[in-house]
Amino acid sequence: MKDHEAVTLKAFLVALTTQSEPLTPDLQNQLHLLSENLLANLVKLDAIARQSSDLSAIYKSARQYFDAPSERNKGRLNLVNDPP
């Protein structure tokens, strides 16, 4: 699984777990069909999440969170055995 695919899946799961009501039967059916070969259908999963009024806002926020670059250590590591 590539990084962007992992972001799609994680963001979708975040959006899905925040739902207080069951998804519509049509959406449940679409997800069931996608689950038969999830890795091949991640692009479709992204499209479904973006188009669903129930999932879209949270999905987009979660994608932004997971896509954000992490802070990198720009300085030199302090090693215990370094001379003063």
Question: What can you see in these coordinates?
Answer:
This protein is mainly α and 84 residues long. The protein has one domain (3-67). The chain contains 4 helices and no strands. The protein has helices at 3-17, 25-35, 42-51, 56-67. α1 crosses α3, α1 (3-17) crosses α4 (56-67) and α2 runs antiparallel to α3. The longest helix is centred in the N-terminal third of the chain and has 15 residues, at 3-17. It is globular. The termini are far apart.
Number of helical stretches of at least 4 residues: 4
Beta content comes to under 5%
Distance between the termini: 44 Å
Radius of gyration: 18 Å
Number of DSSP E strands: 0
Low-confidence parts, pLDDT < 50 over ≥5 residues? none
If you average the pLDDT, what whole number results? Answer: 84
Computed structural class: mainly alpha
Helix content: 55-70%
Entry summary:
With 84 residues, the protein is an all-alpha fold. It contains four helices and no strands.
How do the strands and helices of this protein lay out in sequence?
Layout: H1 3-17, H2 25-35, H3 42-51, H4 56-67
Helix pairs in contact: 1-3, 1-4, 2-3
Notable features of this structure?
84 residues; mainly alpha; 57% helix; globular
